């Protein structure tokens, strides 16, 4: 009998790492929408959320605990992941997550599953085969409500292109080594590092590969196993993903890697000008990946046409709630961005710091309390958005009591 679950090509021998991904939070995804002038989901009302390939479901559990009036679903065919997630849910007394210990194919056939306002897939799309990708598309098509948001992350070209053959080399090495997966991964890495000398022209002519190997050697072995040793490992071009999603009736809204929504933070002026001169939005979308040599994307789509924006005036974002990052409450005048560093004036940072000391505020309210003239309001808005993009501030959810 043919196995259609996708389990055959997927590495199930080692558990994945247990991490929280802030980009999966409904408030973060709403921020992406508002930043790009799309209506956010109304989070104060009950809503539904599906995490496909949830792993240990840390992100979903935390989001569910924070938003108890919403209904979360988490699906993964690795029974160990789901058992551990269920145990945490019980310990944390989180009762608004329904777990599905099954494959995506089984979930597709489960008629008891509702439709969703959010569907998220983190770390899935590049590591499953074409059949599973078709199943994911069918799930999105069947289960994402009109106006619902899809988060899809994946490894992309051209940033990973140089490392693609390295993965093949390490997988071939692993095949000849006996032992369990941990031993195979560690040995293959060690062998690849010993081959990774300038006398091998592949390494000599691809600067950075030796550093990549050294950094992999420092990563947890189960992360390296899932990243590199899965049987399926597909790099995507962002425009191909765009086409596939458009085929499902979805529109690209923006990136959950917040800096990627701000060309000023990622592109140098020459690259930005060349990209602007390209004839179609599709080409500009692709060319940005080449300009920054992007290797990982966190795309956010909405189901349906972009009719909900406010005519591109960019003011929806003023309704976003932003605040200091818990644990990093002191703002600095300098922040790191993909192109280097940004500096802000000390009086601005001091005013902002004292304004936000009492908790997150609506961006529009921060503007009216810090800004005076229309011009300075536009500048302050940009500064605030850049501080969020740099991770110095972050988006928050309103609570139902703040309604
Ligand atoms: C790389 S992990 C990502 C886990 C989690 N999303 C995160 O980012 O922390 C991929 C997860 O997807 C699950 N998975 C892969 N293919 C699947 C399928 N066809 N059906 C159900 N789960 C699947 C794996 O078991 C694994 O837990």
TrEMBL record:
<feature type="domain" description="Methyltransferase regulatory">
    <location>
        <begin position="222"/>
        <end position="303"/>
    </location>
</feature>
<dbReference type="InterPro" id="IPR025714">
    <property type="entry name" value="Methyltranfer_dom"/>
</dbReference>
<dbReference type="GO" id="GO:0008168">
    <property type="term" value="F:methyltransferase activity"/>
</dbReference>
<dbReference type="GO" id="GO:0032259">
    <property type="term" value="P:methylation"/>
</dbReference>
<dbReference type="Pfam" id="PF13847">
    <property type="entry name" value="Methyltransf_31"/>
</dbReference>
<feature type="domain" description="Methyltransferase">
    <location>
        <begin position="48"/>
        <end position="176"/>
    </location>
</feature>
<dbReference type="Pfam" id="PF10119">
    <property type="entry name" value="MethyTransf_Reg"/>
</dbReference>
<dbReference type="InterPro" id="IPR029063">
    <property type="entry name" value="SAM-dependent_MTases_sf"/>
</dbReference>
<protein>
    <submittedName>
        <fullName>Class I SAM-dependent methyltransferase</fullName>
    </submittedName>
</protein>
<dbReference type="InterPro" id="IPR018773">
    <property type="entry name" value="MeTrfase_reg_dom_prd"/>
</dbReference>
<keyword id="KW-0489">Methyltransferase</keyword>
<keyword id="KW-0808">Transferase</keyword>
């Amino acid at each position: 009998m043919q196995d259609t679950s996708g389990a055959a090509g997927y590495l199930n021998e080692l558990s994945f790492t247990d991490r929280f991904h802030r980009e999966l939070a409904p408030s973060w995804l709403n921020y992406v929408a508002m930043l790009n002038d799309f209506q956010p989901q109304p989070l104060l009302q009950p809503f539904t959320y599906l995490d496909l390939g949830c792993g240990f479901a840390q992100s979903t559990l935390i989001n569910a605990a924070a938003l108890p009036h919403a209904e979360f679903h988490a699906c993964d065919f690795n029974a160990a992941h789901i058992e551990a997630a269920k145990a945490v849910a019980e310990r944390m007394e989180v009762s608004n997550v329904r777990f599905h210990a099954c494959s995506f194919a089984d979930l597709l056939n489960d008629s008891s599953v509702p439709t969703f306002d959010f569907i998220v897939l983190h770390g899935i799309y590049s590591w499953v085969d074409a059949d599973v990708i078709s199943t994911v598309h069918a799930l999105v098509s069947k289960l994402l409500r009109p106006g619902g948001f899809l988060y899809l992350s994946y490894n992309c070209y051209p940033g990973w292109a140089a490392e693609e053959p390295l993965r093949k080399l390490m997988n071939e090495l692993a095949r000849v080594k006996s032992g369990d997966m941990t031993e195979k991964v560690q040995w293959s890495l060690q062998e690849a590092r010993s081959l990774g000398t300038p006398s091998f022209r592949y390494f000599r002519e691809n600067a950075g590969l030796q550093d990549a190997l050294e950094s992999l050697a420092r990563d947890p072995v189960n992360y390296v196993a899932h990243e590199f040793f899965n049987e399926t490992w597909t790099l995507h071009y962002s425009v191909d993903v765009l086409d596939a999603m458009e085929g499902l009736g979805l529109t690209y809204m923006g990136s959950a890697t917040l800096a990627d929504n701000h060309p000023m933070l990622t592109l140098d002026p020459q690259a930005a000008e060349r990209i602007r001169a390209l004839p179609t939005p599709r080409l500009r979308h692709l060319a940005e990946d080449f300009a920054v040599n992007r290797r990982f994307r966190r795309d956010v789509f909405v189901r349906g046409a972009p009719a909900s924006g406010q005519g591109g005036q960019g003011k929806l974002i003023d309704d976003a709630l932003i605040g200091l990052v818990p644990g990093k409450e002191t703002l600095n005048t300098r922040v790191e961005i993909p192109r280097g560093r940004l500096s802000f004036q000390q009086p601005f940072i001091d005013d902002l710091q004292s304004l936000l000391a009492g908790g997150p505020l609506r961006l529009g309210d921060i503007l009216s309390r810090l800004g005076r003239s229309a011009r300075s309001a536009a500048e302050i808005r940009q500064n605030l958005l850049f501080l969020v993009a740099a991770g110095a501030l972050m988006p928050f959810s309103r609570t139902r009591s703040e309604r």
